[in-house]
Structures are given as structure tokens and as C-alpha cells.
Amino acid sequence: MLTVGVESPTNIALIKYWGKHPKYEHLLVPTKSSVSFTIAGLHAKTLLKVESGKGEIEFHLNGKKIKETQSEFDYVRNFFDNISRSYKFTKDYRYEISSQNDFPTASGFASSAAGFSALAVAFAKAMTKLGNLPHLNERQLSVLARLGSGSAARSVPSRGGLVIWHRGFDNARSEAEASDLSYAETLYEPSYFSDLSVIYAKVESEQEKKTKSRAGMKESVRSVYDYWQWVDYEEKVLLPAILAAVREKSWGEMFRLTKQASNNFHAVCWRTDPPIIYLNDKSTEIMSTIQPLGYAAYTFDAGPNAVVFALRRNSEEVEERLKAIVGKGNTYRTEVGGGPKGVEL
Ligand code: DP6
């Protein structure tokens, strides 16, 4: 038996991933590229035990055994099914996965990105040790993580910081090429963002019932009448504009465009049939509080909790404003961080 441990960070997108290309849906190749910050202090720690078997999986999340009928188990099973298509030896082993989300409860976040990034890196390490795989480079590792959960691809690059996940399919002549070309890489290391802070604001009181990203984005691709127009605008206009703002360290411009991208994403969710409404009254209160500030930006994913980026010198004030909305003990301040690390056993 072999055990491998990996700790991997979560990430928050400035330009969102929301939809898989219909031709490559099973490979989790996205309709558009996305850009994210790797987050310090929010990570998943995953231990993977491997022994010979027939592809059996046992999965523990935060100390609890996940049943085969639970959706979390489905995601893990899908991941192993997906990788076994490229790596036949996957089915020659039995896997025991124990994943722990070390997220401050005040952040209100749980993340498949951190978990699948850690699992993919651990799987590759184990298979290299067992002699089934050569040493995979970071690009290959991010492709592997993508097969578990799209956003996990962006948590893989070891330098973390600002990461781009290329949609990749534009130049693909086959399915295999589309998959190989859709990977994530670091554009700027964390130290480039020493002027910035990241503040989490937890809005939801407990895990509310909400549409999961995987199901929600599928409905958006199917039913939003101008979905591909939005994709085109983000790919060709908004994403290059955000990268230009980062290159020039024009943080005000980066904040403005980040807010725009979050709003556009939630507008797409609203226009999905039936509509997907992730934001609640507290979320919109955060939006109207942060919107006029030139030194901060909000962004929301598939839920009502906010992540706010702010100039470090204004971050205390911004956190106070957020506390006034979500209450003390429901904010968590951190910064842009690095990528995955091995865990000593
Ligand atoms: C709103 O990566 O969770 O957070 O690929 O189906 O597992 P699957 O989806 P997932 O979707 C994340 C969506 C998002 C935006 C983002 O992180 O870019």
C-alpha cells in the first residue's frame, strides 16, 4: 500500500468559467477561458491510499464517509472514470481518499477546486511512484485536475498567484488535442499582488439548497439565447482588458472589470430558463456598498457569499463595511497565495 498527501489551495475567478463546450462536455473543456486568484489560507488536504484492486473507491470528506449515493461521491467516481479512459491502469487499484477542507468557517466556502486539485496531484504522484506514469509536468497535472472539476485546473500551478485557464479548443483538431490544450498556468506570482487583500464575506447562515454549478452551467449553455455572445465578449474583450489592467497594475481598472464580469455572469444565471438566482438581499447590499469604491471589487460564484478584492491600505475599512452587513465573525481577510504542496506523512 502507498499513501500520498497533498495540500492544495482554492481559487476565485475574476473572469468566470460557466459552461462546457458541447462537443467536449465529458472532458470538462470550457466554452471560454477564465482567470483566477489563488487564495492563501483556504485549502484542502487530501490523503490518497492506493493498493491493488479493481477500481474501488472509498471517500471520506471532512472526517465523514461519503456514501455512493451522494453527489460528492458521483464527482469522485466520474473523475476516476474520466482518467481511466486515458490511463487504463487506473482500474487496477483500490483508492481510499480522505479530504479535509481547512477553510475558516467565517469564509463560508467549500470548494471542489481545492479538493480535486489535491486529489489529481496526489494521484499523479502515487502513479509515478508505482511506475505507471512518468513525472507529469504542471500543464499535464492541471489537465488531470480539470477532469475532476473544471475550476480545479486553476488550483494546480505551483506558483499560484494569478492563473489563466485556456479554453484551448480553438486550435484543436481532435478530442485529445482539445483536452491537452485546455490547461491552466500562472501569469503572475503572488508577490506581484502585495498591494492587494482578499476578503471573504459569509452571507448564508447554513448550506442553503441551491443549484450546483455543474447542473446550472449546463442549463445556461442550453437556454440562454445570447450565451455565445457573452462568451465571445468575455473571451475577446473583457479577459484581455483585465490582463492589460493587471500588467499595468491599474488596480482601479481591474476592480471595475472584475465587478462587471461578476455582474455579467449572474445576469446569465438570471436569464437561464428556469432562472438561477444565487444572490440574495445581503449579496446585493454588498454590491451596492462596494460598487462605487474605486479601490475594491466584489465577485460572487454559485452562491450568495461574496469575495472582495481591495487595496491593502483600504482593506480594514472595506472589511468594516462588510462586517456592518454580514456581522462580526463572518468575514475573513487574506491575500493572494501560492500553489499546492506535498504533505509530510
Ligand atoms: C461559478 O468547477 O465547480 O465557481 O467543472 O462542473 O465541476 P465543474 O464546475 P465547477 O464550476 C465553477 C463555477 C464558478 C466559476 C469559476 O470558478 O470560474
- What sort of overall outline do the alpha carbons produce when their principal axes are compared? globular
Mean pLDDT: 95
Q: In terms of per-residue confidence, which ranges show pLDDT below 50 for 5 or more consecutive residues? A: none
Please report the number of helical segments: 9
Strand content: 15-25%
For the record, give the distance between the C-alpha atoms at the N and C termini, rounded to a whole number: 14 Å
What is the SS-derived class? alpha+beta
Query: Can you summarize the main beta sheet?
Result: 8 strands, mixed
Explained architecture:
By secondary structure, the chain is of the alpha+beta class. Helix content is 36%, strand content 24%. The protein has nine helices and twelve strands. The strands form two sheets. Strands 1, 2, 3, 4, 5, 6, 7 and 12 form an eight-stranded mixed beta sheet that branches. It has a four-stranded antiparallel beta sheet with strand order 9-10-8-11. A hairpin with a 2-residue loop joins strand 3 and strand 4 (64-65). The longest helix is centred in the C-terminal third of the chain and has 21 residues, at 227-247. The radius of gyration is 19 Å and the shape is globular. The two termini are 14 Å apart. The mean pLDDT is 95. Ligand DP6 binds next to helix 5.
